[in-house]
Specification:
6-stranded antiparallel beta sheet; Neuraminidase; single chain; 5-stranded mixed beta sheet; mainly beta; 41% strand
């Protein structure tokens, strides 16, 4: 079924059952966690790359196919390679509390040449994005890219991704104050866009870092081959959202959750009851298939863009518990679970798993 963007019934999907310097120590931190590579699960092609991760939040797949993972509460970056998880660094200046801590990670578009990576973190005073140089064994040269993003015990946003235009997009939350989402002078409750050095692109809609606004808590960002930006957003009591992002778009929070039907607001492509989704990261293929990591929903959903709508979401997997992040790389879906932060940890949690697509 196609779910066009213009009708309430089509938008509502109820799935039954379904500034301090922030730097690095520059040296490996802690003791290595031993990880295992599981044999492929018959019929599923599933591979477990890492086990026993402590509150993982985001990941970045390196050119050599190893994976960097951020650990929210210990402020560590670890590397998963050849069946082993090894520490890279404990990031200085991180002040974990509630949903804040060491959150998103993104590689520079020219990572193969410059070795730069970006981290979204909660400091003592704010949320911020800091750039580092990655040597393969440590992080160095911390450089703040954007500071002053409101922090709170919840709604800290945290996902960062480079777009096809080479700019850095940043999902933020309202940090517990809904009024921030409609305040264009605040960086909270927004999707931000900056150049890799933190400067504001000339074609940003408000002559500031703000790209879109009216968001409650954005934690998923991804683009299809046409350059369309999709974002996932946590709702409060009524609806979570999958949005198609327009520059200068007002996505309604706190006046609206889900379909508002008002010309001044941008309605979502899809909406779910929070108990069925609570979407965190998203991964988008060139053809417009969107994979959605669900926390409360404890599943990965798959939905594909068709004309001006989305197909009915399918459940891709639902046996790993809470899912924080997903990425598509070389025909495989990388899945990062989130059971050690809030939920019921299982043997080996938290895990980094891959499954084949197609």
């Amino acid at each position: 079924m196609i779910r066009p963007a213009g009708a309430l019934a089509a938008l509502t999907v109820l799935l039954a059952g379904c500034t301090v310097d922030a730097g690095s120590t520059g040296s490996p931190a802690g003791t290595s966690n031993r990880a295992t590579v599981d044999a492929t699960t018959p019929g599923a092609g599933r591979t477990v790359l890492a086990r026993d991760l402590d509150v993982p939040w985001d990941m970045a797949v390196l050119p050599d196919s190893s994976v960097l993972v951020t650990l929210r509460d210990t402020a560590q970056v670890v590397r998963v390679t050849d069946g082993r998880t090894s520490p890279v660094a404990t990031v200085a200046g991180v002040a974990p509390a509630g949903e804040g801590g060491l959150l998103g990670i993104a590689l520079s578009p020219a990572f193969g040449e410059d070795g730069l990576l970006y981290l979204y973190l909660t400091s003592a005073d704010d949320n911020r994005v800091v750039r580092y140089r990655y040597t393969g064994e440590a992080l160095s040269d911390p450089t703040p890219v954007i500071t002053g993003i409101p922090k709170g015990t919840n709604h800290n946003g945290g996902r960062i991704r480079f777009g096809p235009d080479g700019d850095l997009y940043i999902g933020t939350g309202d940090a517990g104050d809904p009024g921030r989402a409609q305040d264009l002078d605040s960086l909270g409750g927004k999707i931000l866009r900056v150049a890799p050095d933190g400067t504001v692109p000339d074609d940003n809609p408000f002559a500031s870092a703000v790209y879109s606004y009216g968001h409650r808590n954005v934690q998923g960002l991804g683009w299809d081959a046409s350059g369309q930006l999709y974002a996932s957003e946590f709702g409060q009591d009524r609806y979570d959202e999958l949005n198609l992002i327009q520059p200068a778009g007002n996505y309604g929070w706190p006046q609206a959750e889900g379909m508002a039907g008002r010309s001044s607001l941008v309605d979502p492509l899809l909406a779910w009851a929070p108990k069925d989704a609570s979407p965190s990261g998203v991964a988008v293929t060139a053809g417009g298939t969107v994979y959605v990591a669900c926390l409360r929903g404890e599943r990965v959903l798959s939905t594909t863009r068709i004309r001006d709508g989305m197909t009915d979401p399918d459940v891709l997997l639902d046996d790993l518990g809470r899912i924080r992040a997903v990425e598509v790389v070389d025909g495989r879906l990388y899945v990062l679970t989130n059971n050690t932060a809030r939920g019921t940890p299982r043997d080996g949690d938290d895990q980094l798993v891959t499954i084949p697509l197609g």
